[in-house]
Amino acid sequence: VPELPEVETIRRDLDHALVGREIRSAVATGQRSVRRHGEAAEFVTAVLGRSVTAMGRRGKYLLMSLSDGAVLVLHLGMSGQVLLVEPGHAAIAHTHVMLGFGPDLGLRFVDPRTFGEIFVTRAPPVELAHLGVDALDDVRSAAQLGAMLRSRGTKLKPLLMDQGFVAGIGNLYADEILFAARLRYDRAADSLSAAEVRRLYRAMSSILDAAIGHRGSSLADDQYRDVFGAVGDYQSRHQAYGREGEPCPRCRKSIVRVKTGGRSTFLCPRCQA
DNA sequence: CAGATGCCCTGGGCGC
DNA sequence: TGCGCCCAGGGCATCT
Fold first, then answer.
1. Does the global pTM surpass 0.85?
2. Measured CA distances, A63 to A54, A149, A173, A235 (Å)
3. Which of A42, A130, A170, A172 has CA 20 to 30 A from A200's CA?
4. Is the CB of A136 under 7 A from strand C?
5. A75, A116 in Cβ contact below 8 A?
């Protein structure tokens, strides 16, 4: 569930807190989290003594630019958290990497399921070369989205979730966007009318913007937290995701759940066509 | 080549 | 209260 809105919320807070700060200490204990580096010590060597020059984001990846030109790439996977704490803060279970920014500030990368990862690479990261345009920053018109959709003869939802097509949208926001656009998950991407493409374009930007405004979605099992450990607020605004059996906010018919691609899809069978 | 499946992994929720 | 089981799913490898 950390998708674009959650990652963007984290990016903005880290941007305020870390730009200009120097990494004065680094501890990497979770080998799986730094698996792109042969040894954890390699990761530590690559970050120690560098300053943070910028905080960027591409899709669901956080990009911390370092003063030597390298980039620290952070991906939260399913359960990753980036927490800002005081250096003396008590141990947090499933902490894999700790960075110290001096006597007042520390960062901890916590990730129970270890699907996330953290690595240092050169800018721009070749490891992220497969990512498509960013769903928030780089999709700028309905015409552009329409051209993208026509280039692929596949179903709408898997395409929205394909990070190589457009980066940042996962299962939750795909369902919310498709609900807002009144489109079914299994519509052929190249079958959309111009009006439908416009609805999808507007839904993408309005849902992502609104979710960022509410600091993301925190679900019971995912436990997304911002850098201060606080939960997001957007889950209270969900219209379709997780609302199986509850009335559609538009037409009152029951929201249904279907399994597709091994994943749950929530939709209104009446409103979404 | 689109799309399904399985794997990685742990915590929460549920049934008994 | 506790135990086993299933589910959540991002990204990737591997099939059909």
1. yes
2. 8, 28, 22, 26
3. A130
4. no
5. yes
